[in-house]
Design a protein that fits this description.
24 helices, TolA/TonB C-terminal domain, mainly alpha, Serine Threonine Protein Phosphatase 5, Tetratricopeptide repeat
C-alpha cells in the first residue's frame, strides 16, 4: 500500500492554478512539508476537495504532521464527497488498515468540515431572484463620458475593469470602487467618472441603496454592439477554463456573469464560481463572497458568515476586504472600539497604496464623531496625494470641507462645500444633506458623521 501512496502523491503534485493551492503545492515539491500542511489544512477546512485529498496523503505519509491512517481516511472521504474521485480510491485502500469502528471516529474528526457543517457556517444561500438585475441597468448617460482615455489610446492600452458601486433611490450612483483590473490604474479615474455620470432605474425614496457591479471593457473600437460576439467568445473560453478548475478563470467567469447585464445573468449566477475560487484560496473571490453575504447580493444576508470570508481576505491584505470591514465597523453610531477597528483596517489598506483605503481613511480622519481619532491635517494630505485619481466625485470636497471645519478654517470649509454642491448638482444628487452641512459651516460649526456610502 505504501508504494501505491507514492504513486498517488505523484498524481497530486500537478501544480494547481492559483494562490494558496499553488503556494501549498510549491512548498510540498520543495520538501517544506510543514508549510504545505498548513496551507492545505487552511483550504481543506473551507471545503476545497483537492486540498483535502493532498492533506489525506500527507497524513498517510507522515509529511509535516504525525502519521495517521485514521486522519488520512477521514480527509480522503471528505475529498471524495466534494467530488475528488481520487479521494474515494485512497479511502478504499486505507479502510483495510483501520480498526473496527474507525469509520465513525473518522467521520467525527471531519464533521465540522462536512458540506452540511460548512453550509451552516460559511456557504451562501443563493436566492431565486436578484433585485439588482433590473435596478443596476443604465437608463441614461452622457456620451461625453464614454470617451476612450486619450493617453491609453495613444499607447494602444486595452483592458477590463470590474467596478462595484451604490445606486441611490433617485437613480444616481455613489462610491464607485475598482475591485479588479488587468491593466493597473490606467482606466481607474475614467471608470469612476463614468459610473457617476450614468443614471440608473429610480425607485421609491424610502428604498435602501442597492449595490451593483459592472465589468467595463476598453477596446480600441470603443463600446460598440459589434463587440458583443467577441464578448461571447471570451465568455465561452473563460467558462471552459473555469470548468477545468482554473482558479483565475473561475473568478473572471463569475465577474462576467455578475458584471455584464447584456449576458442576462446576475450575482446569484456568479456566486457558485466565486465560491469555487474562494475555496481554492483566491483572496479576491473570498472578498466577493464576503461582500455578497454582508450586503445580501444574490444570496441571503448573513453577517456572521460574511465576516469570516472578509477577514480571511483582509488578513491576506486584500484591500477591498479591509475597506469593507472598516465600513462595516463604522455603521450606525460606532463606539471607540469599532472606530479603532475601522481605522486599523483602513491604515493597512492605505499603506498598500489602495485608492479606497486612503479615501475612506481621509473621510474618517476628517469627520469621525470621536475626537481622539480626528486628524484633519492628515486627511487633507491624503486627499492631496490622491488628487489626480479623484476625478469628479463631490465626496472629495465634502471631506475637504469637514477637515477644514474641524481645523477651524470655516471660510475654506464653506468654499469646499459649495464646490461639492456644484459638482453634485451636475450629477443630479439629492442636495439636502450637502446644503445642511454648508449651513453648519456658515454658522462656524463643524460636522461629524460618515461622509461615504457603502
Amino acid at each position: 500500500m505504501r508504494a501505491w501512496l507514492l504513486l498517488t502523491a505523484t498524481l497530486a503534485v500537478i501544480p494547481p492554478a492559483y494562490a494558496d493551492l499553488f503556494t501549498a503545492q510549491l512548498a510540498y515539491q520543495k520538501g517544506d512539508y510543514e508549510r504545505a500542511y498548513k496551507d492545505y489544512r487552511e483550504l481543506a477546512e473551507i471545503g476545497q476537495p483537492l486540498a483535502q485529498y493532498n492533506l489525506a496523503i500527507m497524513y498517510a505519509k507522515g509529511q509535516g504532521v504525525r502519521q495517521s491512517d485514521l486522519n488520512a481516511y477521514a480527509w480522503a472521504t471528505l475529498a471524495a464527497a466534494g467530488g475528488e474521485a481520487r479521494g474515494q480510491e485512497l479511502a478504499d485502500h486505507l479502510r483495510a488498515e483501520l480498526a473496527p469502528g474507525s469509520e465513525k471516529i473518522a467521520g467525527d474528526l471531519v464533521a465540522p468540515y462536512s458540506r452540511a457543517a460548512l453550509d451552516e457556517r460559511l456557504m451562501p444561500k443563493v436566492l431565486p431572484e436578484d433585485a439588482a438585475l433590473k435596478t443596476c441597468h443604465i437608463v441614461a448617460w452622457d456620451r461625453d463620458y464614454l470617451r476612450y482615455p486619450p493617453q491609453a489610446r495613444a499607447q494602444g492600452i486595452q483592458g477590463n475593469l470590474y467596478v462595484e458601486f451604490v445606486v441611490m433611490p433617485d437613480g444616481t450612483a455613489r462610491s464607485p470602487r475598482i475591485l479588479y483590473s488587468l491593466v493597473g490604474h490606467v482606466f481607474d479615474s475614467t471608470v469612476r467618472n463614468l459610473i457617476l455620470h450614468f443614471r440608473y432605474a429610480e425607485r421609491d425614496a424610502s428604498d435602501p441603496p442597492i449595490h451593483c457591479a459592472m465589468l467595463v471593457r476598453f477596446r480600441e473600437r470603443g463600446l460598440e454592439i459589434s463587440d458583443y460576439p467577441k464578448l461571447m467568445t471570451v465568455l465561452s473560453t473563460t467558462r471552459e477554463k473555469a470548468l477545468a478548475g482554473d482558479v483565475p478563470a473561475e473568478l473572471l467567469y463569475g465577474m462576467l456573469l455578475a458584471g455584464v447585464p447584456q449576458l442576462g445573468h446576475s450575482r446569484k449566477d456568479a456566486l457558485p464560481w466565486f465560491l469555487k475560487a474562494a475555496q481554492s484560496g483566491s483572496r479576491d473571490a473570498q472578498f466577493e463572497i464576503g461582500s455578497s453575504l454582508l450586503l445580501g447580493l444574490g444570496c441571503q444576508c448573513e453577517e456572521t458568515k460574511a465576516e469570516v470570508w472578509l477577514r480571511k481576505a483582509a488578513e491576506a491584505d486584500q484591500s477591498n476586504a479591509q475597506v469593507t470591514l472598516a465600513q462595516y465597523a463604522l455603521r450606525g453610531t460606532p463606539d471607540a472600539t469599532q472606530t479603532q477597528i475601522a481605522k486599523a483596517w483602513l491604515e493597512r489598506a492605505a499603506a498598500s497604496g489602495d485608492h479606497d483605503g486612503m479615501f475612506y481613511l481621509a473621510a474618517l480622519l476628517a469627520a469621525t464623531p470621536l475626537k481622539e481619532y480626528r486628524d484633519p491635517s492628515r486627511a487633507l494630505r491624503l486627499l492631496d496625494n490622491m488628487k489626480k485619481e479623484l476625478g469628479e466625485d463631490p465626496s472629495e470636497f465634502e471631506i475637504r470641507a469637514a477637515a477644514h471645519a474641524e481645523a477651524g478654517a470655516f471660510d475654506q470649509a464653506v468654499e469646499s462645500e459649495r464646490r461639492a454642491i456644484e459638482m453634485a448638482r451636475k450629477l443630479h444628487w439629492e442636495l439636502a444633506p450637502l446644503n445642511d452641512r454648508l449651513a453648519r459651516y456658515q454658522a462656524r460649526e463643524a460636522w461629524y458623521g460618515n461622509l461615504l456610502t457603502l
